[in-house]
Design goal:
Distance between the termini: 47 Å
Structural class: alpha+beta
Radius of gyration: 23 Å
Organism: Embleya hyalina
CATH architecture of the largest domain: 3-Layer(aba) Sandwich
Number of helices: 13
Strand content: 25-35%
CATH class of the largest domain: Alpha Beta
Number of strands: 22
CATH superfamily of the largest domain: Thiolase/Chalcone synthase
GO molecular function, one term: acyltransferase activity, transferring groups other than amino-acyl groups
InterPro entries: ChsH2_C, NA-bd_OB-fold, Thiolase-like
Oligomer: single chain
Strand order of the largest sheet: 5-4-6-7-1-8-13-12-11
Number of domains: 2
Helix content: 10-25%
CATH topology of the largest domain: Peroxisomal Thiolase, Chain A, domain 1
Protein name: ChsH2 C-terminal OB-fold domain-containing protein
Length: 485
């Protein structure tokens, strides 16, 4: 890196990409009827009651690694503004769910949207391959602009050099402009962000954005006319739109910021917009990613020949089209903004940390066991096979990417849940395993015997501040998963 903060091309770049958008959508038109104000046009994504930024990050990372054969990240870097924990690393749960080797470090960077851009810059200018994950759940007070403009989601970018695999988009260089001005702030523990006068923030962001853009073009020897795709991410909507008009781009180059269909996903948004852009780009295209947060960051890439053969597990376009509506009242209840009558059942007990450590591969990685003698698959893993045989004569069976079929199910309206009723199903997985498992991302009336489902990493509940992560199953809805089914 040069003394002015610009990056020098080393052949490194994007080896894989993926995104995750929750299944539920909030229609902004429904907000004002309840809150008395706010709302607007379009929809925003909403994380389910059993999702947090950790589970969102797991799903985005899984989508990236499944689409990138031979991926072997040597670091996991996680950015979020809404961590599930403080005082401990959230990336370690993602690490465990992905079943990465213990030698791979997992680290958090949080507190600001710019942390995502910072981790991406570190990965692009580093030496080892790294999986950069960003996730966010954006919340505002009922009827506020932040509530309507926000969105929930995650993105993941696998970064490395030619030795790590085919480079889909080479990093040509970039620039940063850091500026200290308080236009948006939130104290720890507060549910809402506060904002200074809008024009103040816009002026400062435009100045920082223009400087970073000019420096990035100078560092790479490019001109604005040479850019084929550009996206601008940032929480300040007016600044994002205003800078886009001032970059000197050709008509049609500036891409959709997804504000009308997804909303602004905060720390996840730079990776999400880059993933959506890579899906549409052709080899040879020059791509610009601009991030406005506490200044500005600019990243310039050139799409490689390998991009034409890359097949994302779930495209951003696919996921945007695949959502289902969520009533505004349920959204408020899920976010804890509308107190509702809890289930009249005892709350779950605190998860045992010592027990969780003894079953990390099962609890986080969803790894069963197969009896070497009979081939019987056990979910959860057992020491002795249901068919008999020798003690501890088992081999691991990863099941997180295995589809299954609902054999029978029950709708439980008495079990404790923040969003009753609970649907439990007995699922036969295609690898031979069978497991009673909770279903999610569906309504109880939709379930039928014979449905095809896939595992998804979720939060079962929280007690005494400890989150109980495990796997549920959701209906197979995407085109690629349907083909596999």
């Amino acid at each position: 890196m040069t003394t002015d903060g610009t990056a020098v091309s080393t052949g490194r770049g994007i080896l894989g990409y993926g995104a995750y958008l929750p299944y539920r959508r909030l229609d902004r038109k429904t907000i004002a009827a309840v809150a008395g104000t706010g709302g607007g046009r379009g929809t925003r994504t909403v994380a389910s009651f059993d999702e947090d930024t950790t589970t969102l990050g797991v799903e985005a990372a899984r989508n990236t690694l499944r689409a990138t054969p031979g991926a072997d990240p040597r670091a996991l870097l996680f950015a979020t503004v809404a961590p599930a924990y403080t005082d401990r690393t959230n990336a370690t749960a993602i690490h465990a769910a992905l079943r990465l080797d213990g030698s791979v470090p997992a680290m958090d960077a949080g507190g600001s949207v710019r942390s995502a851009a910072g981790l991406l810059r570190l990965a692009l200018t580093g030496a080892d391959s790294a999986l950069v994950v960003g996730a966010d759940i954006r919340v505002g007070l009922p009827g506020s602009p932040d509530e309507a403009a926000g969105g929930d989601g995650a993105s993941a970018l696998l970064v490395g050099g030619p030795a790590d695999g085919p480079v889909l988009a080479e990093y040509l260089g970039g620039a940063a402009a850091t500026a200290e001005f308080v236009d948006r702030w939130r104290t720890p523990g507060d549910v809402r962000s506060k904002l200074w006068e809008e024009k103040f923030g816009e002026n400062n962001y435009l100045a920082a954005g223009r400087r970073a853009w000019t420096d990035a073009l100078k560092a790479t020897g490019l001109t604005a006319d040479g850019v084929d795709h550009a996206v601008v991410a940032g929480l300040h909507g007016r600044a994002v739109a205003g800078l886009g008009r001032r970059l000197g781009l050709r008509e049609g180059v500036l891409g959709d910021d997804l504000s009308g269909t997804v909303g602004n996903t905060g720390a996840a948004h730079p990776g999400l917009l880059l993933a959506a852009t890579l899906e549409a780009a052709a080899p040879g295209a020059v791509i610009a990613l601009v991030v406005l947060s506490d200044g500005a960051d600019v990243f310039l890439f050139r799409a490689g020949e390998a991009l034409a053969a890359y097949r994302p597990t779930r495209t951003v376009t696919e996921q945007i089209a695949g959502g289902a509506p969520l009533p505004y009242g349920k959204y408020l209840a899920w976010r804890g903004l509308l107190p509702v009558e809890p289930p009249r059942r005892p709350e779950p007990a605190r998860t045992s940390s010592s027990a969780a450590v003894r079953s990390v591969d099962w609890k986080y990685g969803f790894v069963g066991a197969r009896d070497r003698e009979s081939g019987a698959v056990h979910l959860p893993p057992q020491r002795v096979s249901m068919t008999g045989g020798n003690l501890d004569d088992m081999e691991p069976v990863p099941t997180a990417d295995v589809l299954g079929t609902v054999k029978t199910f029950t709708v439980d309206r008495m079990a404790y849940s923040p969003s009753p009723p609970v649907v439990f199903a007995v699922v036969d997985f295609d690898n031979g395993g069978r497991l009673p498992i909770e279903l999610t991302d569906m309504d109880a009336s939709e379930v039928a015997i014979g449905d095809r489902v896939e595992p998804t990493f979720r939060r079962l509940g929280t007690a005494d501040g400890i989150h109980n992560y495990f796997w549920k199953a959701r209906p197979v809805r995407t085109a690629r998963a349907a083909e596999e089914a």
